[in-house]
Amino acid sequence: MEVVAVSNQLKKRTVKEIRVNLDKCIGCRACEVACSGFHAKPKYSSINPERSRVRVVMDLLSDVYVPIRAGDYTQAECSGRNTYTINGKEYTQCSFCSVSCPARDLFREPDSGLPLKCDMCEDDPTLAEPMCVQVCRCGALTYASWEEDVAEESVRRGEMEIGLECLVTRFGKDKVADAFDQLMGEKR
Ligand code: SF4
Ligand code: SF4
Ligand code: SF4
After folding, report:
1. Is 35 touching ligand 3 by the criterion CB < 6 Å?
2. What is the pTM of this model?
3. Which residue, of 24, 29, 58, 187, is most buried by count of CB atoms within 10 Å of its CB?
4. Ligand 2 geometric centre to CA of 72 (Å)
């Protein structure tokens, strides 16, 4: 039988978020410049928006600017997609997708073809704010971070706990408690 040791500890997790206010974005692409410079090797040695982990999807005629940060890599493109109509103009789902995907060249290193992904400008020492947020003078990008408690369940349960849980699920907590009280009374 397993040794019974039940413990629930809480550990901290830092959640980082970049909030995007599309009403304030003017499509200046300063975020693309800053991101590509920050991630150049050596740092700031070159600027190439093709290497940026944030790209601004633009439609100048409709005055639509949408900064998209690079997300995960996928090996396969979607088999079915949506079409969005904004201010009377149609956009494919791919226009606003953050994925590095074989369906297009976005979020891929132009020389190597390797996928690019936003790393929130991880650095040592940690930046007060990611670069794209720092250079966004219009306030379209703002940064927030906070700590969250995450349950770190380290549970090694024995037969008794598992059996009790089954009984409670089947008969309800009160009936199990009554039966337990009755049993204990008989034993005394
Ligand atoms: S820097 Fe700000 S305003 Fe300029 S394109 Fe990027 S998100 Fe938009
Ligand atoms: S770019 Fe995004 S939406 Fe378009 S096929 Fe790839 S994963 Fe799907
Ligand atoms: S958070 Fe950093 S890595 Fe991510 S898009 Fe902004 S500048 Fe690039």
Report:
1. yes
2. 0.76
3. 29
4. 11
